[in-house]
Design a protein that fits this description.
3-stranded antiparallel beta sheet; single chain; 201 residues; Arc Repressor Mutant, subunit A; mainly alpha; RecX_HTH_2nd; Regulatory protein RecX; Regulatory_RecX; 10 helices
Length: 201
Amino acid sequence: MIITKIVYTKDNKSFTIFTSEDLEFTVHEDTFVKFNLYKSKEIDKNEIDDIIFENEKYNSINLSLKFLRNRKTEKEVRDYLKKSEIEKDIINYTIEYLKNLKYLNDYEYAVAFSNDKLKINKYGDLKIKNLLLFKGIDEDIVNEVISKLPQDMLYTNLRYACSKKIYSLRNSKNTYEKTVRHLIGKGYDYGQIKKIMRELL
């Protein structure tokens, strides 16, 4: 078959290709140039399949890069592409492509995420760990990152949160129980909570 007509769409920089056998397909201009497509060019079904597959890879990478404007985990990118109805093989290709370009790194994500939650949200290590696991990060990576959290900062945060909660409940009943529940909810270890509670009450 031959290419009988080519229509360019400026808005999304794409070309729609029409063939002599009434097959038509649309590709981005990068794919168009890569395969040297032009009117009257001879082309077969296998070539069209290759072109479409290459174009899907291009679309998948572009979708991912837009999604990665804010740092994401590998699982989050996979889930996003799956919801966008990208084929599994293309998703796998895209993930490796992003890793090679250092756009996707679960270890670096886990370090940055845990530091933010520790310093800004004042979360305990247990809650940070659960949040990282929920985001699909490998458990070995999570355990390594959690083990490297500064213990002095965890202790300082816990003591501050404990003092603040006790003060806010100074006129309430069951101060001890309410404070413990609050601190467990923030992800602190029960043994550490009891130790500091004994110091403060």
